[in-house]
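User: Predict the complex with magnesium ion.
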Amino acid sequence: MKQIISVLTENQAGALNKITGLFARRAFNIESLAVGVTEDKSISRITMIVDSGNNAVEQIEKQLNKLVPVIKVRRFDDSEVIGKELAMIKVAANSKNRGEIKNLADIMDARITDISAATMTVEISESPDKIDLFEEMMRPYGIQEVARTGIVALQKGSSSIG
Amino acid sequence: MITGAKAMVKGLKEQGVDIMFGYPGATICPFYDELAKDGTIRHILVRQEQNAGHMASGYARKSGRVGVCVVTSGPGATNLITGIATAYMDSIPIVAITGQVATDMLGRDVFQEVDITGACAPFVKHSYLVKDARELPRIMREAFHIASTGRPGPVLIDVPSDVQNQQFEYKDPGEVNIRGYKPSITGNMKQIKKVAAEIQVAKKPLICAGGGVFSSGAQDLIKKLSDKGKIPVVTTMMGLGAIPTSDPMNMGMIGQFGHKTANYALNHTDLLVLIGARVGDRAVTAPDRVEEQSRTIHIDIDPAEIGKNMTPTVPLVGDVRHILEKLLEFDIETDSGEWSQELQQLASEERNKVSAKREQTIGPRNFMHALSAQLDDDAYVVADVGQNQIWAGKYIEVKKGRFLTSGGLGTMGYSLPAGAGVKFADRDRQTVVVCGDGSFQMTMNELSTIAENDLNLKVVLFNNRKLGMVNEIQKKAYSEGPFAVSMPDTPDFCKLADAFGIRCRRLSDENQMEDAIREMLSHDGPFLLECVVDPDESTMLQ
Ligand SMILES: Cc1ncc(C[n+]2csc(CCOP(=O)(O)OP(=O)(O)O)c2C)c(N)n1
Ligand SMILES: [Mg+2]
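Assistant: Here is the predicted structure with magnesium ion placed in the model:
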């Protein structure tokens, strides 16, 4: 089952290493990982997606809690959070199909952020499955490069983990 | 203005540290210079860094305080790794200080640089790479706090040489307050009530005591719980002696190499109360089966241990001592008469078995019985790893003393330096090391430290000229049988001891056993007793 793990940690050298080390040691793959500071500059938020059995993820949560720099850990499933990811897709484009690409981008609320004689770069901020869908739509034109940030997520409504 | 090195010494003194185990080198010299200047902390020079870790561990386990060790960067630090990992697996509080190359050299693979905080990350409770001396006063305080509170464990402080030399204005860091580290000590009252209710209705209750009982100093409460609830007790290897091994309610040690009665109890209980035991695979070989057959209560200070290897009926997080104090306020008397009598009968039969007397070799069980008969009630026994460990664990009587061993990592060579550590904590405590010829040769260089410090440590060496335990496994389970386990040319251990100025006796006839043990124990100074053991002796004595 896919789960989102949100971790608040001291913003210090080595903390991320300690956290990802816990996963590596258990031969767990992290599907996506995003790190950034929070409203409090001394605290970072790490958002991860893992796909594994519930027991295994629960054990990881407990091990994360044991790390001294880790301040808080929460696990969510998709329905509990607003989760978004930013992707940039560089796609082959010419004067003939630029309009089509622009149309598709509009439908998905994506933006053209760069353009050259032979390419267009489209930026989209969405849930991962919508980004997957958009990537599929771009594929026939010839995708040259994709960069994705990994998901960041906050709980729905007024609750927060801090 | 003070230097980082001085702040380190100040931090140690503040914690009441008066002894540390170490081995110097270039990058830790500024610290050693301050140590020399200060002159109040005794420094024990070990003969290899791993042993500084083991000595600090033995010291911590005897004194109940944090053991401290210090080594240089690079090879000093990597040698210490096994000591740190051993302490981690057994939840022993130590603070390890390593020198490091100067901060502007970090990451450039300069002479004697290793990423020791990176290397140790999976088996330290916490580590620091200190980049600014102004953080040292706080870090020193935090390190001791983290090592000794909650579930104890090793903390590593890696200090670059320039940080040790850095001058700064000392400011008191105040009380320790780490927002990500607040171990919960007191148990949840609702859960404790549930536990009491479970115990009341059990017909075949069983307490399983682990190393956590010693970490929280709750031996007396295990006894009280057993008495009040009429609950038989088994222990893990780490929990050996949680109640005296001769107590009629003690059914022995569980596990692959444990007592028959203890394993029988584990396999037939209807309520298993795990107390400070982490359900390690050597202790509980089939947790699924136990889960199916009985209700389970798991009391541990580390929430991550609960549900890791077994899913308990009632989980209970907190310090064992706190929890048992509260639990004992409830009415928990069980109706376990039949069950307890059956077990007591089996245990006493098992305990009273003896092996036929021999004259060419020493029977391990008979030896352990003879040794137990002469040991002080509060003696410390430190066993190594291998067959010798199993024999000691199963057949030595632990009364008011302790049985120490490397239970989690199974580190050969642990016993000699750890035994020395016990002696440094309590010079007058009778302390006996039990080891094999293989394990002894891993750390026998510490005989030098032992002689130098005139530690009255007794060493029993079971010489089977083999890596006996591996020999046994290979014979049992591998098609080619024993391979690479024979050491026919082991040295003449008595000559070796003599070279260190240590008294020695070689024993091969059981008729001489009592006399040899008496000589060893009454000698005023270190003593090596080499016992000739049959190379094909098994851990499964009938
Ligand atoms: C550092 C280390 N290396 C290897 C092992 C694997 N091992 C476990 S027991 C054992 C044999 C120990 O031999 P010895 O000390 O002579 O004890 P005996 O079993 O003969 O009593 C070995 C090699 C280990 N536990 N630790
Ligand atoms: Mg041997």
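Chain A has two domains: 2-76, 82-152.
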